[in-house]
Specification:
Helices cover 28% and strands 25% of the residues. The termini are far apart.
Length: 263
């Protein structure tokens, strides 16, 4: 860890520490016989160093899994552990603290505060930490540097492009030094060129100490990830490394008829 408190880039050579563990997880809405099984017996391990995508058509369970991985929701049945801690045993306050300490969120819409500068927006993630004003500023500047925006630290969102705003959002997710960066369609609101820049930033943030997980409809993006978890009808139908994949992701979902975008 650097003096700024952030983990520096290290190439990922192999899977390391298990950070998140889901075992036989169900998320059921409503009562039988009309209950909706949004997740149906999902088991998944996420390790430090994972650079992975979660894909699937609409209704496959991606968003539900995102909510559970982000400790925003609880399963109807099953076990979810974050760094060995069972989240279903925690009360709301303890679960919220675990979420803040362990997970950095990036969304399709940037959710920046309009009247704050880039530096101020990043610093909001540290407001409830036991840190001095100087420590907060130094860590926030370091995070902006890691996404190439140090020179734009005093700009407000309206003064930045969409790609720059998303990079600020990534810095805000990174500044807490989380176990996992969880990104929901992070390139969905960006043009193709800018989306590639943002994806390259995620690649450069790979670390042996954290996982990066992108939930996406875009199969072209998923094809570039080291690991892809494919979902359908609330189940994981494949979980493979790019080096071991024997089929094309588009062929896996060919019946969607939507080319490189899953609907």
């Amino acid at each position: 860890m650097s003096d700024s408190g952030l983990q520096q880039h290290n190439p990922v050579n192999s899977r390391k520490t298990e950070l998140f563990q889901l075992r036989d997880v169900y998320r059921i809405y409503g009562e039988e016989p009309v209950a909706v099984h949004a997740l149906d017996g999902v088991s998944l391990d996420i390790h430090a160093g994972d650079f992975m995508a979660i894909i699937g058509p609409s209704g496959s369970g991606k968003s539900t899994l995102l909510g559970l991985l982000g400790c925003l929701d609880l399963p109807s049945k099953g076990s979810i552990k974050v760094a060995g801690t069972e989240i279903t045993d925690l009360d709301d306050g303890a679960r919220s603290k675990l979420r803040g300490d362990s997970i950095g969120f990036v969304f399709q819409q940037f959710h920046l505060i309009p009247h704050l500068t880039a530096l101020g927006n990043v610093a909001t993630a540290l407001l409830y930490r036991d840190l001095s004003k100087n420590e907060i500023q130094n860590r926030s500047m370091s995070a902006l540097s890691m996404v190439g925006l140090a020179e734009r630290h005093d700009h407000r969102p309206i003064q930045m492009s969409g790609g720059e705003q998303q990079r600020v959002a990534i810095a805000r997710a990174l500044v807490t030094d989380p176990l996992m960066i969880l990104a929901d369609e992070p390139t969905g609101a960006l043009d193709t060129k800018t989306a590639k820049i943002v994806l390259d930033i995620f690649k450069n943030l790979q670390s042996e100490n954290r996982a990066i997980v992108l939930v996406t409809h875009d199969l072209e993006i998923a094809e570039t990830m080291d690991r892809v978890v494919s979902m359908r009808d609330g189940k994981i139908i494949a979980d493979d490394l790019r080096s071991e994949r024997t089929d094309n992701l588009e062929d896996r979902f060919w019946e969607s008829g939507s080319g490189s975008k899953l609907e």
